[in-house]
Amino acid sequence: MTTLVEPRVGVRAHRLRLRRRATVVTAALASVACALFVVTMMVGSFPLSVVEVVGSVLGLRDDPAVDFIVRELRLPTATAAVAVGVALGVAGLVFQKLLANPLASPDFVGVSAGASLFAVSAIVLFDLGSAGIAASAVAGAMCAAVLVYALAWRGGVSGYRFILVGIGIAELMLSLVAYVVSRAEQLEAKQAMKWLVGAVGQSGPGELRLLLVALAVLVPLALVLERALRTLELGDDTAAALGARVERSRLALLGLAIVLVALSTAVAGPILFVALMAGPIAMRLLGPASGGGLLAAGCTGAGIMLGSELIAQHALPIALPTGVVTGAIGAPYLLWVLASANREGRGG
Amino acid sequence: MSRRLAARGLTLGYGPHDVVHELDLDVPAGRITTIVGPNACGKSTLLRGLARLLAPRSGSVTLDGTALESMRTIDVARVLGLLPQTPVAPDGIAVGDLVGRGRYPHQGWFRRWNAGDDRAVAEALEQTGTADLVDRKLSELSGDQRQRVWVAMALAQETDLLLLDEPTTFLDINHQIELLDLLTDLNRESETTIVLVLHDLNLAFRYADHVVVMKAGTIAAEGAPIDVIDAALITDVFGLACEIVPDPVSRTPMVVARGRHHATGARTVATGTLPTPAANA
Description:
Oligomer: heterodimer
Largest interface: A-B, 36 and 46 residues
Largest sheet of chain B: 6 strands, mixed
Helix content of chain A: over 70%
Order of helices and strands of chain B: EEEHEEHEHHHEHEHEEHHEE
Helix content of chain B: 25-40%
Number of strands of chain B: 12
Structural class of chain B: alpha/beta
């Protein structure tokens, strides 16, 4: 037994090293997101100081003018950016880990496209308001996801089949979106196109509240299910042999990811590439400590959204929708993923 | 202590086809069982069925007399482990992290990582000679190191029964022997019941206490290799004309294929004129 003393120390040290790295990286990402959250509320046509913003958000100061600017004008947009970012980051990484593919984010496998189709139909065909558009987006994301899951089902759902079916469904949905827009009157077409680009704060407070409630419930649930996710990413047979309830866990994880994507789409439209980028960036920073990662991915998503929002609103000569900026960052990233996947012979 | 795994009237299949037909099998407790047979005879399917990864179409798989289907999967996982033929690992995973995931069935909502888990992982790394690799990335390792790490993960699960699907397939011959020796040590020291699907007949006959020869989804023969293996059986199951000679090292049956170009005595080493191509290649 004496020979076992040394490796046992090694195993413990290894585990503690991984845990420390995960804690440090996640805390750092959360700090960056918090800092960006405050900065977003400082800049604008009426610049505010850190003290004014933080004081107003926490209700420590009594300055009606500042309170109005912060709480009424800037806080809802900044909160929406954080909520959408966390939702997309967590959902994206859940998809990518479950389907074992860096390209398998919800915006590629039809979920966002389903939301788009229903929302655009709500605008063009039924002339609904923002709540109706949001509800349609949620319904569309669910329909697309159920369709993909059902079509990919063969006594179980494998990663590749899900992705290929998902891409097919996404293309179908997007061509229908184009058809619906082509049928629209000019004003509605413009509104639909605006929604399709995606911007933080384009819907009402009701949808944001719904997304925040969903995050409060689903993020802790995702962290509980992360234990099962750690076995699922070893393949179905290994996961089942380890005693995980494979289909049930996968369905729960996919379900919560789809709800998060659907609600974030309801709030901000189909913001592209955030779900694709957040997880892999967090995983790269976590390195060998990437066994967890959902929380880190959520923080990364929030950071990307806030950063994109800052650039979209303030860094450019004219204010742009957030979706344009995430698209501009995401497109080169996608090309890089494809190029590096091909180099490694994984074929993306 | 040893647990009894058995199949009764077991029929397994995928899609419209039955692959394993009404098969009865008692896995000898505390022994090494190897399953051999030609491609598509159902040996991997049988292993998946025994590990409850594939639900029976009819019949049942029982552990100590209880049908696996009626047990909680996590309870089965504390007793019965399986290493699939081609397990997959996420990018960049570290060896210690991967082996630690073998502890999944021993943890739960409230029971998180403890010193017992550290001990199990350390022992698994030690037994497989991978303790020095604990901080390395799996993707940086050689094929045989990687395979030993996977075995370590299965060992960390601390099960009385361990099923392995062609664990030696991608290994060089020296590493095949090392791995099979390692599994034999494990069997002798902790009385772990081991079931292996193996492609190499001679290794399967050498390392098995009990061999199961499958043909077209049924068992053609089973028992101690020395008792059940003969040329007629191999010819029948594999369609291969061959001779069975005693393995010069272990005295277990060794299959020497005939082939069309090497009729007995036509070219012999004894003449010293022609190099004989390896007969078992």
